Structures are given as C-alpha cells and as structure tokens.
Amino acid sequence: QEAKFVGIMALIGLLIIVAVLRSNGSHATDGPKGTSSSTPLIRTNDNPPLSSSCQWRPEPLQGICDVTKSTPQSQIYKTAVECEEACCKSNDCITFQFRTKEGCLFGGDTRLGAEKDGVSAWCEPRSPDSWHGQRTKSKGTPVEGACSPDTANMNELNGQCFGLGPKRPTQNNTPESCREACCADANCGMWQWRKDAGCFYNKNGHGCNEANPEDLEAFVGKRKVQSGRTYSPYAYTGDFADMATGDFADRAGLEQR
User: Fold this and answer.
1) 229 vs 42, 61, 105, 165, 250, CA distance in Å?
2) What order of strands is seen across the sheet that includes strand 198-202?
3) pLDDT, tens digit, for every residue of 121-144?
4) How many CB atoms lie within 10 A of CB 54?
5) Rounded to two decimals, what is the model's pTM?
C-alpha cells in the first residue's frame, strides 16, 4: 500500500511540473515564433515611410530659397532623407532644403520661379552658380569707377543677391552689357549677370550669398502642396522657360494654354 501511495504521489508531481512548463511556454511567445511578448510587432501597413503621406510639388528646390532656415529642430537631421521625413511629419514645416554646408533647413510656403500667386517668399529655381555683379551706388552715392570699363569690378558680387527684380533686356548676353544697362538707368544701384539667367538690376538688393565651392552645391528640397494656391504662372515659364524640359515641358505647355 505504501509503495502504491508513493507511486501515485510521484505521478501527481510529474503532472504538476508538466502543467507549469506548459503555462510558462504559453506566455513566452504571444506572436510569431521567436517574437518575445515584450517586443511589440511592427506592422509595415501601420508604419509607412513618412514621406509617402505628404503631397509634394514635383519641381525640385535646388536653388537658394529665402524662406528655409536652420532651426534647433531641423539641425537634428543629418541626411536629406531624414530632413524630408521630418518636414513631412511636421505641421509647421512646408518647405525643406538640405545640402552639406547648411544641413537640414525648414521653412514655410514659397513661390518658385515665375509663380506669382501665394506668399511673398521666393526660391531661385536654378542651382547655385557664380555670378558677375557690382554695386554702382552706395547709399545713393555713385561708386567711383563702377561704371567705367577700365575700373569696374565685375566680380564684386559673385554670390546670388535677392531683390533685383525681373530679368532686364540687354544688347548682348554679357556682364559688360548688363553693367552698361544699369549705369544708363539713373535708378540703378546694383546689378548681377549670369549666362544662363541673364541680367538683373535694381535700386538695391539684399541677402547676397557667398560664392565659395560649398556655396555652389545644389540643394535637395521640396515643398508641400497647399490648398488654395494655383501655382501660376507655372514656375518654368517666362524668364525660366529654359528649365521646362521633360515632364516639366508638358506642365508648362498646359499652363500656357
């Protein structure tokens, strides 16, 4: 009898051990094999790439924009992809740009090229390049020698300046012709010329950039589509019609109809 009792107790103990082991196993994995219950499953459909949730304008922002700035938040992001995704996620960021010198830049809405509707901020559609230019007046007073072919310094303003207005007609597409046109206008105090852009001059300008090699690198940038804007005239028309190539040529053609 005693031996039978010991056997029964041993069997009961074994059954208890098996039940405990099975209970622990059922809590070890709640998901697919090898996935710990402490690590939540990441489902692709629940976490799409951030940029896919944004509607971006197709034209790249490769030139200088006066609206994008370096902020403590933007400088967290160290690549163009990170910068784009962060801007997409942010309700405050409408426009982003990135290049090696400045890193990630955030900004509000902006016009591009020939566009006139919307905000006052503007982006140069062309990639940065070296300009020729000079101030012909300083605080309204003519700069000595600035209008003379022998003494003019046409490389004074090699980096792009803003505020010079629309493209101006000149006799020839040369820096000399641009300087002469400015000097012939009593209201002109500053001019700039670039072969693929033409001649620009006005009473004054602002925001002149440097022209070191790192300043001539093209930006990577985009802007979010904003409701209420018509984006007209199309960016690559008028003074910027030479940029309407490929798919952009079709857009420009539709805009001009």
Assistant:
1) 38, 18, 23, 23, 20
2) 132-135, 190-194, 198-202
3) 999 999 999 999 999 999 999 999
4) 16
5) 0.69
Which residue type, as a one-letter code, is found at position 197?
A
Retrieve residue 39's tokens. Answer: 């690590």
Sequence letter at residue 111: R
Handedness of CA 204, 235, 79, 87 (dihedral sign): positive
User: Among candidates 256, 221, 216, 178, which has minimal Cα distance to 59?
Assistant: 221
End-to-end alpha carbon distance in the chain = 106
How do residues 205-236 score in pLDDT, each as one tens digit? 998 988 999 999 999 999 999 999 999 999 99
Token readout for 101 is 């010198």
One-letter identity of residue 240: F
What's the CA gap between 96 and 110, in Å, rounded?
11
Adjacent-strand bridge partners of 111: 122
